[in-house]
Amino acid sequence: MRLAIFIILTFVFSGCSLKTINTQSVQNSDIKNSIKIDNQELYKNYLKRYEYTLNLSKYVGKRAIDCSALIATINNKNSDIYSLNNLSFYYGKDGRRSQAIYNLYKSKDWLNYHSATPGDLIFFNNTTKSTRGKKTHNITHIGIVKSIKDDGTIVFLHNLKGKNILSVMNLTYKDNHKVDGKKINAYIIANCKSASCLVSNRFSGFGKINRDISVK
Fold first, then answer.
1. Which PROSITE patterns would you find in this protein's record (predicted)?
2. Strands 121-125, 139-148: pairing kind
3. What is the DSSP letter of 63?
4. d(Cα 109, Cα 118) in Å, to the nearest integer?
5. 151 vs 79: CA distance, rounded Å
6. Angle of CA points 53, 166, 67, to nearest 5°
7. CA distances from residue 65 to 14, 17, 133, 201 in whole angstroms, order as listed
8. CA of 167: how far to CAs of 43, 59, 211, in Å?
C-alpha cells in the first residue's frame, strides 16, 4: 500500500522521468565568456560541476510529460539544484514543483533577474490556460539555460506539450518575436501569438545554480 501511494505521489509532483544525463567535457570558451573568473580553482570546479549543461541537446525532441520532471532528472545527477528534503517545505496548494523550486530559491536569495550562466534554472509565470489571465504571480513553467549567444539571446531547454525542445529568450527586446528575421523570443502559451505570450514577458527570474562564482 505504501509503495502504491509513493508511486502516485511521484507522478503527481514529478510528472515524467527522463534518462540520466551523461556528462561530457566542457570547452572552456563556452562558459568562460559568461562568468567573471575571480579564482581559477573555482572556475575549474565550475566546469567540472556543470559540464552537463552543454550535453542537453541530446534530449531535444524526446517525449516527456512535464517541465519540472526534466529538472528533477538533471538534479538526480547534479544535486546542486535542490534537495528533496528542503523542497518539501516549499510546495503550494497546487502541488507544482516549479513553484516549489522558485519558492526555495527566493527564500535563499538565489534568484537573479538580469544575467544568466549555463546551467541556471529559468522560471516563467502564468503560462497555463487556467493562469494566463491572472494578476497573481504563479510559477507554472521551468527550464534550464544551455547557452548564451553573442547578442545576449539565451538558449534554454524545457519541456513543452510533452516534448523537450530548445527555445530562445532575449530580454533586451521583450516585445519582439523576431528581430531582422531572426527569432529571439519564443512563444510559450498555446494558441497565443501576442507579445504578452512571449517567454520574455512571462519570465520570472533565473535560479542561480552556481553560487560560488560572481556573475557579470
1. PROKAR_LIPOPROTEIN
2. antiparallel
3. B
4. 19
5. 31
6. 80
7. 9, 8, 24, 24
8. 27, 13, 25
